[in-house]
């Protein structure tokens, strides 16, 4: 008689993979991002973002269009060669001060103990992503780290499609903090949980029609059943 060698608890789990967004979900970098963009706006005589609430209402992907909405001239100051590199330089000058969300360490440990694979899927350039994780001692918390091949943050649908091609049978759920994360989850047929503590407001996230929670630990009931 054939015997199933997969532990019963794994067969009963709803998901086999948890995909983590990075910025605003794993890394609490909202304040650093606002500081960088406000420096750029102020230097050009433009109105800076007033507070976190306004930022969460206007930030979006692709970042080029977000810049345009703030009044930055993405044509005369080329986005790819001028504006994006400037933002990255300003961001990196202070990103060492951006902590991981406190619950990430315990949550990744809990999910690992439950037998779930965990990947990071980020619009951040991959070398920068690895450096940020390594600086915080968090690289080993994840089975895979997927970052973009440029600094321009156009989005991560293509990266997500590559992840799905590498994991065609995975039952996946994506944890993120923006409406873009919800769109990415739909591209790869993954469920989605959105955390209203990052780059988008709870009101914007609520329009996606998926669970929206206030803190990372509130995700656990959706993940472990």
Overall description:
With 225 residues, the protein is α/β, with parallel strands linked by helices. It has helices at residues 8-12, 30-43, 52-58, 63-69, 79-92, 103-113, 126-135, 157-166, 179-187, 202-206, 220-223, and strands at residues 17-20, 117-125, 144-148, 172-176, 191-195, 212-213. Strands 3-2-1-4-5-6 form a six-stranded parallel β-sheet, with helices on both faces. β5 (191-195), α10 (202-206) and β6 form a beta-alpha-beta unit. α2 packs across α5. The protein starts with 7 loop residues before the first helix and ends with a helix.
The gist of it:
With 225 residues, the chain is α/β, with parallel strands linked by helices. The chain folds into 2 domains: 8-28 and 99-223, Rossmann fold; 30-97.
């Amino acid at each position: 008689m054939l015997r199933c060698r997969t532990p019963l608890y794994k067969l009963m789990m709803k998901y086999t993979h948890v995909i983590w967004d990075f910025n605003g979900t794993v890394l609490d970098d909202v304040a650093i991002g606002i500081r960088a963009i406000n420096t750029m706006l102020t230097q050009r005589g433009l109105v800076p973002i007033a507070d976190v609430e306004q930022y969460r209402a206007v930030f979006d992907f692709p970042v080029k269009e977000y810049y345009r909405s703030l009044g930055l001239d993405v044509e005369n100051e080329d986005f790819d060669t001028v504006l994006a590199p400037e933002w990255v330089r300003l961001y990196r000058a202070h990103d060492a001060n951006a902590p991981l969300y406190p619950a990430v360490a315990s949550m990744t440990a809990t999910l690992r103990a439950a037998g779930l694979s965990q990947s990071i899927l980020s619009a951040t350039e991959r070398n920068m992503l690895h450096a940020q994780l390594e600086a915080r001692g968090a690289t080993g918390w994840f089975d895979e780290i997927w970052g973009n091949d440029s600094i321009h943050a156009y989005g991560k649908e293509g990266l997500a499609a590559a992840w799905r091609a590498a994991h065609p049978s995975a039952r996946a759920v994506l944890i993120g903090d923006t409406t873009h994360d919800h769109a990415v989850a739909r591209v790869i047929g993954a469920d989605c949980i959105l955390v209203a503590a990052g780059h988008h407001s709870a009101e914007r996230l609520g329009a996606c029609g998926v669970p929206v929670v206030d803190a990372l630990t509130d995700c656990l009931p959706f993940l472990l059943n």
